[in-house]
Fold this protein.
Amino acid sequence: MAIIECKVLVVGAGPGGYVAAIRAGQLGLDTVIVEAKAHGGTCLNVGCIPSKALIHAADEFEKATHFARASPLGIKAAKPTIDLKQTVAWKDAIVNRLTTGVGGLLKKNKVKSVSGWATFVDGKTVEVKTDKGVEVIRAEKVIIATGSAPVELPFLPFGGNVISSTEALNLGAPPKSLVVVGAGYIGLEMGIAFAKLGSKVTVVEALKNILPLYDKEMTRPVAKKLKNLGVDVLLGAKAKGLAKGGKGLEIETADGKAETIAADKILVTVGRAPLTQGWGRENLVLDMDGKFVKIDDQCRTSMNGIYAIGDVTGEPMLAHRAMAQGEMVAEIIAGENRSWDKVAIAAICFTDPEIVSAGLSPDEAKDAGYDIITKSFPFSANGRAMTMEAEDGFIRIVARKDNHLVLGIQAVGGGVAELSASFGLALEMGARLEDIAGTIHAHPTQGEAFHEASLRTLGHALHI
Amino acid sequence: MGEHLIKLPDVGEGVAEAELVEWMVEIGANVREDDVLAAVMTDKATVEIPSPVEGKIVWQGGNIGDVLAVGSPLIRLEVDGEGNVKPGAAPVEAAPKVKAEESLAPKAKPAPKQEQKAKPAPPKAAAPVQNGAAPRAEGEKPIAPPAVRKRAAESGVDLRRVIGSGPAGRITHEDLDAYFENGGASMRSGGGLVRNTTVTDIPVIGMRRKIAEKMAIAKSRIPHITYVEEVDVTALEDLRKQLNESHSVSRAKLTILPFLMRAMVKAIADQPIVNAIYDDEAGIIHQHGGCHIGVAAQTPGGLMVPVVRHAEARDIWDCAEEVSRLSEAAKSGSAARDELSGSTITITSLGALGGIVTTPVINHPEVAIVGINKMQVLPKWDGQEFRPRKVMNLSSSFDHRVVDGWNAAVFIQRIKTLLENPAMIFID
């Protein structure tokens, strides 16, 4: 039995873990990372990246479908077809390039990768089941980055026609009919993509709203698009179980009626749960925060020398949060004085249209006791949006009334995900409305709506 | 789709205008029937205007602080089906705001800002914003760009200790430099005291404007004569204590107010001229038979004067209960309009803060106001020795145009006699 001694051990090579390992390597720390599957975790393998690939393919297919009918652009094309197997292969190639790239970066930074399932023996030691047998790794500092997994409904277990987002990314063909259980961002991203690929999609959501984390103003353009795509959205409806024969979903509608929706596939996206079992947590003494591992503002757990980052530590379960934590923890272990001081973690739904939220929403700001001013600027008054046939949506700014410090920025619209960069920068830099208003935003871009939203909040928008 | 126009309704008898004090909805907002759209303030009551229809707000008839005439357009909604405005009808003129000249006295009232446009008036430039290095409020997070945060962390500086000179109090690299140069202290004048150069502009609108107007009228029109007398309330306090103890469960707690009210009723019977409304423009004094005693009360919104009607027909307990009910209603904002108007004479008391002398301002158009000052135990010479006595001053003002000094003095002396011999209050 081989024993590896190291300074830093990272358990899990998702976005949090691999970034922590790369940064630790850069800082000259002797680092080992353990991962049972491919590098990159959920994000690269079965999450952010592959879903965006599928969404892109679906968007392109929808465009072509559009051109096969009448298009105001004057473009005419034959009715398109899609070979989803090829799409998946293309997607897999991207995933492969990225995960291989991560492996290369780890190697470049002198991080030792161990492939296998890690189980904690004690706070300094893990056993890893590898192909070659059990390896024992002893480390001074340990970073837990085990991530999260899709939540399974007990009455609708994954298997057969009941799939999670992972399987949905690897289908051989678009299902004729697809029921999505859960109208959160994952469910809607996938549901919209399959609707564009030709599936008859029905979304079942137990709550009264789609995307319950966002206010109605923000979700309205998405609801409109769902309608245009012919997606049936059943709000206030509960999934009850698989219909007999496995070709449908039994639900209870908002008014209490039992119904069966025929479906070739049932995609369950009712959230993700931290992965806190199966890696020997019982051999540690970690304080928990609900179902998450409890951490402080330096990502320290209740055990000396053990850090935790990413989805296993709580909401928001976002790759970029995990990456920032990973970078920070590596620097802390290297002796730097760091703590979590971020102003905002932007969240994005790659729905159609896209939704971005950075910082506080108007309601959150009010709840936090701020006296605020807030205004939005619609893309219907933005030239670039018109030229892209993306007039739905808006950019909204929330600022303190007394000193105009920007507290939050939200956007809905085609391609607005890319604007999250400037939103995040504005918030981290402590921008006031006047800073955004005083920045030239190039014409013609959607970013002008950001400029105009700040002007409008100040009371003197130019283009509306 | 049609448009529905809502006009400022008649919000109270004899009310010709109302001040817009709050918009509950914004342009573009969807409202349902009965959702509150706006709050307007008349004389002294605030009235909420509900929506009679469901729709989307497309136009607002004024800015906060504007005075609108009853019947002027308040808000326009886009509604399903036909609205009450014909399509193609001439665009609505901006609400005809009541100009200063047309408004009620005083003439010197500043005219509300006018926006004579059919379009929704753009909001005015935001209130002045504090620039410069205003100190952060206690416990507020420091604002600093990431590079500054990192440099501070590397130098072991807690940014909460650094004063930010940038916009919105943002901490700049220069602020950090200054902090280091001062050996770990921000640019502060000695003793950690910081110059506060902020100027906060508070618009005088709503209730504050009403109070300001009333005070200005009272002080500019009425030549006040103020008369202060000392009252020995030892006996009254003994009686009050006894009554409160013996009725502690069954009845309202007695303060000094109901005794004063009953004493005033008796004194007014001898000097009826002080219980009057003086219409100086018409040259008539409306001397009232009924004693409607206003009781000045401090509320979260400012000074209000709820009125105990017909104090002459109420006994001491009744007065006590009414005062307590009214002051609660005034404080919670639930007082009705007619409970806040119609007084013929007023009592003002600063309670425990009462001071030793005040110069009360008459509640125009009344002619007299009685002020209660602080009660204190003082040594008093009774001819043989000093005795501790509970003593309280009454500071009262009268409209010297219609109340002579002699009448004022006799009125207060009568009250003093009654309060010093409280049994007389109860004997006719």
Summary: Chain A has three domains: 2-53+85-149+273-333, 162-270, 347-458. Chain A has a mean pLDDT of 96.
